[in-house]
Specification:
Layout lengths: L8 H50 L10 E2 L5 H4 L15 H4 L28 E5 L2 E2 L4 E2 L15 E2 L4 E6 L8 E6 L4 E5 L26 H7 L1 E3 L1
Antiparallel strand pairs: 1-5, 2-6, 3-4, 6-7, 7-8, 8-9
Length: 229
């Protein structure tokens, strides 16, 4: 009687080698495609922030009787309620975007609860978002009082300006670029060589990396950043 033979050691080694070659070719391409998708999603979310900020200012969404931008954090564009009501949050951005705020405010009062009361925090499509601290092109701080009703907080507004950055949760696996956007709906992209994420905690906290914590000066913008559509 004939015995059925299995694979020889050499045949197994050949199969394993073929699989390894296919993986070596395919995996980098898949990772690159995922990074590109994350970057596109981050850029689209930044546009959502710009739209929400315009709505917030034009329609006085917090009811403070002043046309101003919200600069305290990104999450507030979801959380904030009108001062004369303790009802539903404004929800000007998606909850997943609000939950990806790198450094959200703690609960201020019933008009601006913490984002943690709505969802667990984590990056959105591999990216975190943070409300920039100041504009170095003037220079001028973003966060201040605009003289309106202080019920939500007096140090989280600007009459005419705001700035936001988004950066990868894990460089370079989740993304290789950071994006910034301001009140002019002007978005810029910067290719990264080192991580921007300030800490391994969730959320990671305020951005501290030099060149990323503020809207850049005109010279920095020209040197390091490129206009992004």
């Amino acid at each position: 009687m004939r015995r059925n033979k299995g694979f020889t050691l050499i045949e197994l080694m050949i199969v394993i080698a073929i699989i390894a070659i296919i993986a070596a070719i395919a995996i980098p391409g898949l990772l690159a495609a995922q990074r590109a998708a994350n970057e596109r999603a981050a850029a689209a979310s930044m546009k959502s922030v710009a739209t929400a900020q315009a709505d917030f200012r034009a329609n006085d969404r917090d009811g403070n009787k002043v046309q101003d931008f919200w600069t305290g954090d990104v999450a507030g564009l979801f959380c904030i309620k009108t001062v004369d009501s303790t009802g539903s949050a404004n929800k000007l951005i998606e909850l997943s975007l609000a939950a990806a705020d790198s450094d959200p405010l703690a609960a201020v009062n019933q008009y601006n609860p913490a984002i943690s009361s709505y969802a667990n925090q984590g990056p959105k499509s591999g990216y975190w978002f943070w409300a920039l601290a100041s504009d170095l092109s003037i220079p001028e701080v973003y966060r201040g009082s605009t003289g309106g009703n202080p019920a939500i907080g007096v140090a989280h507004y600007h009459n005419s300006k705001f700035g936001v950055i988004t950066y990868p949760d894990s460089y370079p696996s989740s993304g290789k670029a950071a994006f910034i956007l301001n009140e002019g709906n002007s978005m810029y992209r910067r290719s990264l060589t080192t991580p921007v994420k300030p800490a391994s905690t969730t959320p990671p906290g305020p951005v501290t990396a030099a060149g990323y914590a503020d809207w850049p000066s005109d010279q920095q913008l020209k040197t390091y950043w490129a206009k992004s559509e």
